[in-house]
Amino acid sequence: MTTADLPDHVLRNREAWDRWAPDYVANGELSWRLEPGREKWGVWDLPESEVRLLPDDLAGRDTIELGCGTAYISAWLARRGARPVGIDNSQAQLATARRLQGEHGLDFPLLHGNAETVPYPDASFDFAFSEYGASIWADPYRWIPEASRLLRPDGRLTFLVNATILMLCMPEDDGVASTNEMVRPYFGLHRLEWPHDQSVNFHLGYGDWIRLLRANGFEVEDLRELRPPEGATTTFPYVTLDWARQWPSEEVWIARKRA
Ligand SMILES: C[S@@+](CC[C@H](N)C(=O)[O-])C[C@H]1O[C@@H](n2cnc3c(N)ncnc32)[C@H](O)[C@@H]1O
Questions:
Q1: In this structure, which of 5, 23, 46, 223 has its CB flanked by the most CB atoms within 10 Å?
Q2: Alpha-carbon torsion 211, 216, 222, 226, what sign?
Q3: In this structure, which residue's CA is closest to atom 3 in ligand 1?
Q4: Residue among 45, 51, 50, 75 nearest 63 (CA)
């Protein structure tokens, strides 16, 4: 597929992420340094020891990270014995990932591409993961079928996203915290365009997520609504601790591909 064939949201998000990549270097460097058991998730840095998002049995497993950015999660998976592959839409993000691979002596495939069409055969992976990657920047009606195609029977898909309820309360303006009122309709939630930076992301209502996952051969095993502890901090301006202590700001979907 040539660049001209890519959907407009992929091209727009590529431009945006190539521009934002320098802002993600420091977090990538920090996160690459986290040893097994010390991993941290999401905008509140919630410890893996508490939220337990990683399967126990990663040794020898084939994993793919959809929208890997600086690929720190794939690095964590490699240290736990998996054979990771990362795919990302931004060459600038992958440049950081490749430098960090060199610095940490870890080597795994990093592909530049769209997670909605991954150049791997059917049933190549045991575990597919996305943390604010394809899970919010790619169209779920394209990337969920692709994740299903890539997974082996009984494989697991885990993805972390902004909670749907947060997206209902997030104003369009840049740098503004989510409010205690809903600012957009729930029904019809899918593609959101952000005028201040021309990026596009995707969020669904809960019923739509469940129907989409089930229609693509998944059983939903869990929906974890993450709650930061008192005193937690985030560098992201769009949600306050007060908000996130009352309502879920982040959600993790855990689904298994039917055997
Ligand atoms: C927030 S980063 C995710 C990486 C990391 N987990 C993090 O939170 O920093 C979002 C990444 O998704 C990538 N991305 C956006 N759209 C994508 C697509 N269609 N296919 C693959 N990657 C995509 C971006 O290039 C960016 O590197």
A1: 46
A2: negative
A3: 133
A4: 75
**Largest Cα–Cα distance in the chain?**
48
Q: What is the mean pLDDT of the chain?
A: 97
What the block records as the tokens of 23 is 């802002």
pLDDT reported for residue 1: 66
Pocket-testing residue among 3, 13, 41, 136, ligand 1, by greatest number of atoms within 8 A of Cβ: 13
Ligand 1: centre distance to CA 69 (Å) = 5
Chain segment 111-121, per-residue pLDDT in tens? 999 999 999 99
Tokens of 246: 């009352």
Cα separation, 119 vs 97, in Å, equals 19
CB of 131 shorter than 6 A to ligand 1: yes
Residue 60 is encoded by which pair of tokens?
């020898």
What does DSSP say about strands 151-162 and 125-131: parallel, antiparallel, or unpaired?
parallel
The reported pTM is: 0.98
Cα 35 to ligand 1 centroid, rounded to whole Å = 22
| Distant-in-sequence, close-in-space partners of 20: CB < 8 Å, separation ≥ 6 | none
Nearest to 191 by CA among 208, 174, 216: 208
Whole-angstrom Cα distance, residue 116 to residue 113?
9
Q: For residue range 205-240, what is the model confidence (pLDDT) as tens digits?
A: 999 999 999 999 999 999 999 999 999 999 999 999
DSSP 8-class letter at 250: E
Place of tokens 């080597």: 107
- Residue type present at position 156: R
What span, in angstroms and rounded, lies between the C-alpha atoms of 225 and 177? 19
